[in-house]
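Single Protein Entry

Contents — chain, fold
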Amino acid sequence: MLIISWNVAGLKPALEKIAIDYAPASSSSKSSITPSSLPFSNYLTLHNSPTILCLQEHKIPLASLSSRCEPYKCSTVEGYESFWSCATNAKSRGFNGVVTYAKIGTVQSANVHPLKNEELDSQGRCVMTDHGSFVLFNVYVPNGGRTSEGLVNKMNFLNALRKAMDEQRREGKSVMLVGDMNAKIDKRDLYWRHRCLNVDVVREGLHVGDKKVVPRWKLDVEKNWDKILSVLQTIEAIPIQSTNPSTKQTFNRFRARVQLQDGRHVMLGSNEDSAEDALDCFNLSEQRYIDPETDESTIIRRKNVIDIDTLAELMSKIANVAWDEKTLRVIAESDEAGLNPDSPSFLWMKAIVEEDEMVDVFRHFYPQAEARFTCWHQFTNKRYTNEGGRIDFTFVDKCLLEHVATLEEQTLRCGKQSHDEPLGEEAALAAATANGLFVGGTYSGGGIATPSQTALDTQFGPDHTGMIYTPPTYSDHIAISLLMNESFGASLGQLALDEKDSSTKKAQPHKKQRSIASFLCAPAAKKSSSGSTTSSQDKKRPSTGSSESAAPSKKPTLNSYFGNANAVNKSSQGKATKTSAKSTSTKGKTVPKNSLLNHFKK
């Protein structure tokens, strides 16, 4: 039983790439591909036909699914049922969205409102599927951003999610949690130069330890920190004019600037979209927010907590102390460096592991793996230097761990080449870049370079628990995988989906009765061998002609729905066709009672 989870960062563009790269062999040419689900089905086959596929950030509106206008017929993939959570509130519409595809016979119900909170459920961030002995939560956790409002929304979501999982356990279900968590749980989940350091803790340690063994970098910090803080008091955001290399359009960005004690000015950081963002990078004051659970003011970042990269820049530009790469590595691996221990999302992740006994499956099987990231900053080409973060996770209840398939040689993928240290950084870089075959975009515009077919095919391989290095042209995230043993999936395949369940119905908007809008998205009519015009929809649409008439009834048109009297069918004998709908008269014309014209008359 294979489970794959992937943040596609927009399902439509991802499917467009898949349709070009992996059209079925039956297609005469890639240029003649039609928007069907065949390329997607073929793509899943190449990925060994996962039993369950969880996608995040599909960004498809609910209206598109209910009217069958979804791109590449993505709601109806052969052999699978699909369950959709779409963003419906005004703030999130057109964004977010999660969908779970599960092979027919593996799901008995689904719920797109498992958090039982209208505000949270309407953001399109969670869908729960019931697989009999266990439930699976597919989530796209809010980023949180740099605002208090964003963090409150994130923690409201996480707290509601934890309650929902607990409720399922009380009902006797085991729980799986997959998706984009927008959080990290281990310092190895973060590029080493971006790890945090609490300068106050470092300085306090100097007064209690043996100064003879104190690393030189700590003494540098102690000597220059007060000077750095003094200079940071002069910080300001300076507008920087930038030019889009493709459109030649100019616009302002912002960068931080400080004045040194000798009167000179130096620039800090990089260009940011706003003045607030430029200054926030160097905000070393204590940060708090109101905890939504306790309604108390809670510390989320202590003062003088700074990432290693930023600390190195301040030491170089303000204190004139240049640390080499070796020194920075020593700092990153020190006990004082790691994730922000006061981050609410980090504490939440820690709680579900330590208190709820969930297991981070990847870290369980690969405890020594370094630099194995699932997301990179796309616009700055960080994937090609492997400067990213692991924010996509698979958690399972501890009781399910024994059912995770274990292979004799279960190692992480390293591209198409073997490595002496498959868990090391060199192997991770090779996997992320397909041994250098994936190439980033240029800063002169044009987007990411199109990979070769050889590079694209490195994403495929045997079923395993770990990471699937999907191409950078598809998404800024890669997929993650979980392989359960055969005995665990033996009961699946025989479950009956309760399509009458109201929650399941809401999760399958593509199965709703078609609206007038769907006719606007109908495929073009095809001529039959007899020369008459038919379509696949005509075969499903009941005839409005007399049951006694042998002649086929005329195809209803949109005009008939808007009250065109000429749309009323007549039999070949010239008799008026009997219909179940009543009609009314207006200015000598017969108008169906359900016509929109009657609504305009009122």
Summary: DSSP finds 19 helices and 26 strands in the chain. The longest strand covers residues 250-259. Residues 524-601 form one domain.
